Amino acid sequence: MSAISVANWQGILKNQQTLLARSANSPAVKGAIDYFRKNAPKIQNVDQLLKDKKLLGTILTTYGLEADAQYPAKIKALLTQDPKDPKSLVNRLIDSRYTKFVVDLSFSAGAPGNLQDPKYADKLAQTFAQNTYEKNLGNQDPALREAAYFLRNIGNVTDVFQILGDRVLRDVVFKALQLPDQFGTLDIEKQAAIIKQRLNLKDLQGTLAKNAQLFSDANADNVKITDVTKLSQAASAVVKSVSSEFTDIENAYKALAARQDPLGVNAAKITQQNGFVADLARVRGLLDSANARIADIPSSIDRLQQIITAAPTTTDQASFDALKTEFDTTVTRLQNNLVKAGYINPSNGNPESLIAGTPASIAINLPAGTVTFNSTDLSSVLNGLSNAKSAFDTTTTFGTAIDPNAATNLATARTDTVAGQAFLAQQGGIYSQALTTIDPNISASQQSLIFRADFSTQDALQRIAKISSKLITLQATLETAIDPTANHAQLNTQVQQLKADIETLIKGNGGGTDNLLTADGGYGSEEGIPLSIRGADLLTQLRDRLKDVNAFTVANATSGSDLISKELRPYLASRTNIIKADSAYVQSAAASAPFVITPDTAQLRLGTQSAADSLSRATTVGSLLGQLRSLAQSAFNAGDGSAQNSVDADALIQSITDAINTPGSGLDNLLVGGGVQNYNFIPGAQLGITKGDLANTITSQLASIDLSSTGSSTAAKNAIDLINSTLLPALADAKLDITTGSTTIDTARKTFDPRAALDDRFTAAVANITTQVQTATVSGKNLLTSVADSLVFLKSTPGTYAISGHGEFDQNVTKGLQNAVTALLTNSTSPLSVIHSSLLALTSISIDLSGDASQLKFGSIKVQDTLTAKAKAEAAQLTNPYTGTTKAKLIANQFLAFNADTTTGANQSLADLLSGSSNTNSILNLLI
After folding, report:
1. DSSP state, residue 42
2. Which residues lie below 8 Å from residue 491, measured CB to CB, with a gap of 6+?
3. Where are the domains of the chain?
4. Which end of the chain is more exposed for a tag (fewer CB within 10 A), N or C?
5. Higher pLDDT, 513 or 438
């Protein structure tokens, strides 16, 4: 090494920052990096990389392997063979640079994600600039490059085998220690032992290497802390959300109690309203029944007219008889509907009908004055149908004209029915207008508030639906990227666009609405009616958590897909349920806002739910009857029954019987018994639902069905006729009765009972708890469902921290509230005491979670201090990569000195080295 090189070396050490910056900003380096950023993401296989010489050259230079550019087969083998295979090329090469090269860029599992990762590009730019700088040093003197490489890397060495596995480090150390050329032929373990005798690695190590284990432990500790913190935060978020929601509900129940206090400010209103609400419910029931029973009369009459036209054109008796049967059955059904189009007076139990002229009128004294409802008489429709049937029945054979009086009477009946429907609509308008006059103190500002809340929630729910769709698409895209052969660059572009779309949807509320997806909505209250809609902070809970999701690698795609499916989508579903429930509450609360009476909430709720249960079972019965009819049709088509048909029929009949006779737990069975099931409304008034009598009209009839092998096709035909002409009509009539009665009760419940809206909100909130608890699951763990503690053992700083599991959440919160919902059917007392107990349990859990998190924070601070020290050391290493320790500089200087001195022949013999009779002790003493 010349004197000029020695001078250059000293300048390198003194001006390394300036020289490195100059190299990084050189056109050649900047051009290479720009080319990499633009073209690397396009690479999908190793052949594309090998064809792009410029890109390949940049990558190889980054790893100090530019000399291998002339060996494409070697590079291909390195990048395509499984690095986990002990026989792969990378595992047969000693030089650790190849290992790093393969770890970062192996194509064995598809295109490496690093080629698309901007963070990798930034790191590559830094290393490429350093290696290019060192390469330029090598153009002056190869020893300068090796010395610079040595100083940049030796400080990170933690094991002597790392030196032996790196050609440059090995050459520098061998030269500095004047080890003989034959030294490399020794067994690797022997080489390591001798070098350990000559070098104290700690004297060469920088901060990162000296504290490698500490920093490694700190990284591992940080992962543990991060994971358990996410777990704790997820649980705390759910506890906070549930607590906040039920605090709102608790306050609403308290406010409602004040409104309904018979000795409170609304005492006079309560007395007044108790005097007229029964009549309002009475009118509502009469309107509901009449409208339901005559709704399809016009369309049914149209069908009857078609039958009259078609009957004379029949060419056989069977076809005519079928039309006649349909005509008679339809007329009978319509007559039955007209007769049953009434309602039971809630106050005296007498039957009434607005379309039978009884009573002639109903006058109700309301706060704004007397409102009168009138009835009409549609007996003309009943008579017209009867006369039409008589006229039709005079014809008994096919191909014969029908008495024209049949069509004339039907036309008159239809006209009168349409007039009756118009009359009922007019009476319904009077009813709706009457409700708006109940309490003039409900101001326009309250309605404006409701309008704003409604539009805000509808806007939020529409955007949530779109966000949910985007999340599903995002998850599907990430799942596609799990395939190692997928085009990760293209898929990642789609991923980033979907993330941007989601953020736009979160922020983009419609004009004139509150954005419920970035914060909770609060709509104040008026007349003591608490109104609130709980929104969602999707910027934090969705956008921010998607920030690092990408499709660069299979691992990244997998973790992103898991995040969406296991955490984000359940969270979004939970918040959607909350917004929907609160929106429904606001609307219902507004509808019942004028009323302050205290109806029998439990009875009205029981009636509504019993009707819903009975109608659901009736639908099941209808489906089963359809299956039974199909079975009979098969038997008829075959010309006989069979043993299997009989078995199948018996099973269906049993299922029908069970469906009819088995109501839901705690509910009334409205499908059997006939008569009227009454539900208490207010003192002295009941609201009724006409029950079906399916045990007689259906169950008892089923015994006559015989599809066995002894049965004939006639028996099968009889079964079909029975189902069509008797069983299904009986079922339809029962369903219509129950539907009509339940509509009246549900309308009364939602209109006259201000408690109903709150009970529904409470019920929906309780039903959503399970979904909310699921959102506290992180990596398969959930502090709200486990009684076991999550222990965090830290290595970088002494300490063991416990994050307590709170499996008692289910017993102390969820189950208590669920029992309170069940009790709403039988107990009109509000669930305030249960809510209060649950809130206390939630507070206790919240305090525990907060305390555990605070304790963990102490350990976290120490870990973060260690990681901060690591980051500073890494930054210093990037800024001054050739600083090195004093001993490292001595070795570099010695290497350069011996490399330049080609006349001394100072290398000791291998025999002397092994025997210990070395003549280089003075030199070694300088180094160790």
Report:
1. G
2. 477, 478, 480, 481, 551, 557
3. 289-309+319-331+343-439, 599-752
4. C
5. 438
What token pair was written down for 761?
A: 């909100």
Q: Exposed/middle/buried for 370, CB within 10 Å: 0-12, 13-18, 19+?
A: exposed
Residue 373's DSSP bridge partners are: 362
CA dist 6 → 2, 173, 564, 707, 899 (Å): 6, 18, 59, 110, 11
The answer to whether 407 touches 305, Cβ cutoff 8 Å, is yes
Which amino acid makes up residue 494? Q
Would the pLDDT of 920 be above 50? Answer: no
**What would the mean pLDDT of 542-546 be, rounded to a whole number?**
94
DSSP string, 151-176: HHHHTT--SHHHHHTSHHHHHHHHHH
What's the confidence (pLDDT) of residue 324? 95
Number of Cβ within 10 Å of residue 71's Cβ equals 12
Q: Fill in the DSSP letter of residue 546.
A: G
CA 618 to chain centre: 33
Q: Which of 571, 592, 570 is nearest to 761 (CA)?
A: 592
* Degrees, nearest 5: CA angle 147-152-154: 85
Q: Residue 926 is inside which H or E element, if any?
A: helix 921-927
| Beta carbons of 523 and 478 less than 8 angstroms apart | no
Under 8 Å between Cβ of 625 and 763:
no
> Quick one: what percent of the chain has pLDDT higher than 70?
94
Let me know if 778 is exposed, middle or buried by CB neighbors in 10 A (0-12, 13-18, 19+).
buried
Cα 76 to its chain centre, rounded Å, is 44
pLDDT surpassing 50 at residue 927:
no
Burial of 406 per CB tally in 10 Å (0-12, 13-18, 19+): buried
How far is residue 41's CA from residue 288's CA, in Å, rounded to a whole number? Answer: 67
**CATH number for domain 599-752, candidates 2.170.190.11, 2.30.30.760, 1.20.1330.10, 1.10.10.10:** 1.20.1330.10
Beta bridge partners of 377: 356
Distance in angstroms (rounded) separating the CA atoms of residues 857 and 864? 10
